[in-house]
Design brief:
37% of the residues lie in helices and 18% in strands. It is an alpha/beta fold and 273 residues long. Strands 5-4-2-1-6-3-7-8-9 form a nine-stranded mixed sheet, with helices on both faces. The structure holds zinc ion (ZN). Zinc ion binds at residues 148-149, 218, 222-223. This is Heterokaryon incompatibility domain-containing protein.
């Protein structure tokens, strides 16, 4: 299935996700492209958690049965269009995982692959643990820097943060593995457009970022917990933290040396340490 990539060229493989209904088997085609530049902005790169390599399921790849992790299969199933193919770059499929030499070489090109993609789709996982409730909260949080985060000035916000189910759903959404992995740092940092996919919902990066930034501006300054002891606004800062961390790396326009990169990211997890 995998023809070797030419070592001396810029060749890389894309994955064309074939159209289909949600319940249809996932079918993909491998395509070798002579250079990333040639396909610049015409593919999307997938950012996801590999999860346990033992937990696999079958997809069709170039017409043959191919095993991928269940989490990847689910991501592809949710990303698939009904009528149109979708061109992706997916590490586990685009790179021949049985070819160690190729794996080592392709890892050094990840920066180029993620930065030249039209966008990066970050797969947070299926819809569970009330994730839709958590996502709905982002339609209620203030998105203007001028709006205070005070209960008596915003009834909808007060109802939201006093709702235990919503606060629990937010906590669980931001504890999902994607936020705490090592590889996602570069994938999310380099993305021109970052889109989150959670079950059937798609969320733009700004949908997460704008309220988090507004909150940061107000909490601890003009708005804080002392206004009302039953006002659990502090928890929001905790939930927004993974967003703020990624925002920090996305706004870096300098090259950071390894000594500065290790402390903030050393606690992150990856399948193959
Ligand atoms: Zn304020």
């Amino acid at each position: 299935m995998y023809l070797p990539l030419n070592n001396n060229s810029e060749e890389f493989r894309t994955v064309t996700l074939q159209p289909g209904n949600f319940e249809d088997e996932v079918e993909c085609l491998l395509n070798t492209v002579s250079a990333i530049d040639q396909l610049s902005n015409r593919y999307e790169a997938l950012s996801y958690v590999w999860r346990s390599p033992e937990s696999t399921t079958a997809i069709k790849l170039n017409g043959k049965t191919h095993q991928v992790t269940k989490n990847l299969e689910s991501a592809l199933r949710h990303l698939r269009y009904i009528k149109h193919p979708r061109v992706l770059w997916v590490d586990a499929i685009s790179i021949n995982q049985d070819d160690i030499e190729e794996r080592n070489r392709e890892v050094t090109r990840m920066g180029q692959i993620y930065s030249q993609a039209a966008g990066v789709d970050a797969w947070l996982g299926e819809s569970f643990e009330n994730s839709n409730l958590a996502l709905d909260a982002f339609g209620v949080f203030p998105t203007s820097m001028d709006v205070h985060w005070r209960p008596h000035e915003n009834e909808a916000l007060q109802n939201l943060v006093c709702d235990e189910a919503t606060m629990d759903a937010l906590s669980k959404l931001f504890k999902r593995p994607w936020w705490h992995r090592m590889w996602i740092v570069q994938e999310a940092t380099l993305a021109k457009n970052l889109t989150f996919v959670c079950g059937s919902r798609q969320i733009t990066w700004d949908t997460f970022l704008v309220p988090a930034k507004c909150y940061q501006k107000h909490f601890g300054f003009c708005c804080n917990a002392s206004v009302n002891v039953t006002w659990p606004i502090e928890s929001l800062g905790h939930f927004f933290r993974p967003i703020v961390v990624i925002s920090g790396s996305r706004s870096l326009h300098e090259t950071m040396d390894i000594e500065r990169l290790i402390p903030p990211f050393r606690g992150r997890i990856c399948t193959d340490p």
